[in-house]
Structures are given as structure tokens and as C-alpha cells.
């Protein structure tokens, strides 16, 4: 009997190791977009089957019937698509699930262009650029390829999670407009490695520049200002604090809710030494991590500071890209402290499906992320986290290197 049990246990271990090896091999295989139609259809069928099985509620936004109809239409369209069109089709389908933690990751070989475009009001501007494309810097974008930029933006939005608040989709579009593989897959350009941008400068002169992918190790990107605003400096730092004597404020830029214990300890030490009149926690560039860490090492310790947890002394800066754990912590700051939230509406809904896991498509080896849990972080009927003081930066602010959000906080009486 004992030998039988040991044999069973051994057999289970062998099968488990074999399954683990297969899983690891699937994950470790490089991405491959050069597939047959049948292979792309295989990835599609796998995606449809597994997303409904693994997601906490895959049809919370798009009904199953509508999702499966869209999948069927894509299945019949795949024979007409090239590689970029195929993965774009899968990405568009995945976006129908609705939540921002569920998406098809952009391929590693995405032919990205070294320039960035951002929206200011009803205008799209080139906010930084490779020195090779210096002529584009600061100018208003009119067309991408031959497509008006507004229409190109709407096409890009179709690839993003449909059930989040508008600011998050706008942030996604900014990246997509300079990604060659995305533009090609959408039919905006005819070549993933080339795109023409038609712009107009402030004197009214219109011109077109063709851009191509360049190595990431190339020269630093050009920006329109001489000195970057504080929140843009030292982008590699995940938790950086600086005492600002002119506002008697301690400013802490928290870019990642992960391993925050050390940074939070240094922040508390600075508070003890400097006795600031204001504490500013900047979450505008924070894409998440582990909200329980943020609650333990940021929200709760700050909540227990009697001299700073007062209205007008504690500020949390938020924006469209305050995502996932950072969004959760912003909601907790509002609920548990006297913090004033300043900036722009957070793009992600506070009551939504989150806690992403991943799976690998069997043929292309592209990664699909999907939500495994529903969280509720707000009782607001609008299901949005709006700032107490909304401040929307303008193009004039940006090109001058001015941060109107932090300036408002420092001037607050």
C-alpha cells in the first residue's frame, strides 16, 4: 500500500514537472508574427476559449453573444490580413472585455518611433523628438500618413479597453500614434517602419516629415523647454522626495507602488527633520504595483501624522495615468485622510476588474493579460475619481517647463 501511494505521488510529481516544463517552454519562446492564417485562427480560438474561462467575468461589459459574433467576424477576416493586421484584430477583440487590466500586449517588435505626441485641448502636439526629427518638435499634428490625426486617434481608441473613463483612452492614444506596427495594422500607414507626420508650426507653415524607427540608444530626445519640471526629472527613480523651501513643502514623486518601504521610511525621516508645512504625494506617473503596500507604508503612516493630515497641508497629485494600485491608493487617501486631490480625472474606474494574470497565445506567443478579481474603491455613483481641484496643463505650460498642478499646491493658503 505504501509503495502504491509513493508511486502515485511520484507519478503526480512527474506529470506536474512535465506540465511545468511545457508551460515554461511556451512562455520562453520568442514572439513570432510570421504565421499562417490557420495559426492566427488557432490563436484566436484559444483567446476566445481561455478569456471566457480565466477572466473573473469576461462578459461584464460586452455580452457573450456580441463578443463571439465579433470573434467570428475576425475569424473570416484573418485570411485577408497581414501580420500586423492580425494581431491588431486580436487586440481589438480583447478590448471588448472592457477593463484596462485585460489586453493583448503590443509585440516587442513594435517599430516604435522616437517621438511623442500629446493632446492639449483639441490639438495634438509633438512634445519630444529624436534630433533627426527636430523640425517636428512643438508643432501641431494635422495628419498621420494621409489620415487626419483626430480620425487616427479614434481608430487607436478601438484597441483600448472600452469600459474605462475617457482620460485613460486618451493616454493610450498618445503612445499608439507613434508606434509603427499599430499604425500599419490599423491601415493608417502602408509600412510599419515608416510614417509621415504632417504638422503646422505656430506661424502657420505646414510641412510633412517622414520618420523611421531608430535605436533606443541614440541621442537624447529633444524637448521644447530648457529645464524640465520637477515631476519629469530623474525618471528612473521610483520614490524620490525633495524639500521645497519656497513652499515649505516636502514633495515626493512616487512612480511605482512596489518596494516602497525604504522610500517611505526616508520620507518620514525628512518630515521629522524638516517639519514641512505641506506634504505632496505625486501619483501622476504611477502605473501601479501592490496597493496593500501603498496602504501600509504611505496611506496609514501619513494618516497618523497630526500636523500634516489636515486640510491644506496634505495633497495628492493625480492624473489620467494614475493607474491600478496608484488609483486604489488615491481613493484611500481621499477616504482615510484629509488629502486634497489635485490634477486631472483618473482614467481607470475605481470599481472595476483588476488583479491581472497572463497567458501566452500558442502560435504567436503574444501575451494576453486578464483580470481575476473585482475591486470596489469608491461609493461615487459616477464610478470615477475626480480631483478636488482640477488643473489641466496647457501647451504653453508644457513648452515653458511649468507644472501648474504643483504650482497651485505651493501657492495654496
Describe the model.
The protein has 413 residues and is an alpha/beta fold. It has 3 domains: 99 residues, Transcription Regulator spoIIAA (2-Layer Sandwich); 97 residues, PDZ domain (Pdz3 Domain, Roll), CATH 2.30.42; 148 residues, 2-enoyl-CoA Hydratase, Chain A, domain 1 (Alpha-Beta Complex). Strands 8-9-10-11-12-15 form a 6-stranded mixed sheet, with helices on both faces. The longest helix is centred in the first third of the chain and has 27 residues. The N and C termini lie far apart (79 Å).
Keywords:
disordered N terminus; 12 helices; 413 residues; 2-enoyl-CoA Hydratase, Chain A, domain 1; Transcription Regulator spoIIAA; 15 strands; Pdz3 Domain; six-stranded mixed beta sheet
Regions with little confidence, pLDDT below 50 for 5+ residues: 1-17, 19-26
What is the percentage of strand-forming residues? 15-25%
> So how many helices?
12
Number of strands: 15
Listing every helix as H and every strand as E from the N terminus to the C terminus, the arrangement reads HHHHEEEEEHHHEEEEHEHEHEEEEHH
Question: Which sheet architecture does the biggest sheet show?
Answer: 6 strands, mixed
Query: How far do the termini sit from each other?
Result: 79 Å
The CATH class of the largest domain, by name, is: Alpha Beta
How are strands sequenced across the largest beta sheet?
Answer: 8-9-10-11-12-15
Q: Using the alpha-carbon principal axes, give the shape.
A: globular
Would you identify the CATH architecture of the largest domain? Alpha-Beta Complex
CATH fold assignment of the largest domain: 2-enoyl-CoA Hydratase, Chain A, domain 1
CATH superfamily of the largest domain: 2-enoyl-CoA Hydratase, Chain A, domain 1
Report Rg.
24 Å
Q: Kindly state the percentage of residues in helix.
A: 25-40%
Secondary structure class reads alpha/beta
Number of domains: 3
Average residue-wise pLDDT: 93
